C-alpha cells in the first residue's frame, strides 16, 4: 500500500505546481463563497441601519455661481397655513429653541446684518415677541391706583 502512495507521489515538478495551485484555489474561493444565501435579489436594510455618506466639502474654485435669497413666509397664504398651526406654530418652535440655546440667533439691527456677525444673547432672545401691557387698577378698599404690568409672548407679533 505504501508503494502505491509513493508511486502516486512521483509527479514531475509542473504537475506538482498545478496540484498545489488547484488546492489553493479551492481553499481560497471555497471559504470566500461560504455565505448564507440571500432571499431575493437584494439585501433588505432599514433606513436606521444604513450609514450616512457625508457630502464632500465644496472648494471655492468649484463654485460657478451663488446667490443669497431672502424669503418672507406669509402664513395667511393657503400653502403656508401649516406654519401657523394654532397649537404649536413654527414661530413658537423657533423661539423656544433659541431660548433653550439649541438654535444660534443673530442680531439683525447691526450694519450688514445679513453677514450674521453678532450673536444675540438669550436675554435679548427672550424679549423678542414679548409685549408689555400696563393697566391701572383702583384698589377697592384704599381707592389708590396701582399699575399691573403683564409680559406676554405673542406669536402673532413674530408670525
Summed up:
This protein has helices at residues 2-9, 13-32, 90-100, 122-127, 155-158; strands at residues 130-138, 145-153.
Q: Topology as H/E string?
A: HHHHEEH
Major β-sheet strand ordering: 1-2
Low-pLDDT runs of 5+ residues are: none
Average pLDDT score: 77
Radius of gyration, Cα only, in angstroms? Answer: 38 Å
Count of folded domains: 1
What does this structure look like?
There is one protein chain. The mean pLDDT is 77. The protein is elongated and about 125 Å long. A hairpin with a 6-residue loop joins strand 1 (130-138) and strand 2. With 159 residues, it is α+β, with helices and mostly antiparallel strands. The chain is 31% helix and 11% strand. The N and C termini lie far apart (98 Å). The protein contains 5 helices and 2 strands; from the N terminus they run ααααββα. It has a two-stranded antiparallel sheet. The chain has one domain.
Any key phrases for this structure?
159 residues; alpha+beta; two-stranded antiparallel sheet; 31% helix
Secondary structure elements and pairings:
Layout: H1 2-9, H2 13-32, H3 90-100, H4 122-127, E1 130-138, E2 145-153, H5 155-158
Antiparallel strand pairs: 1-2
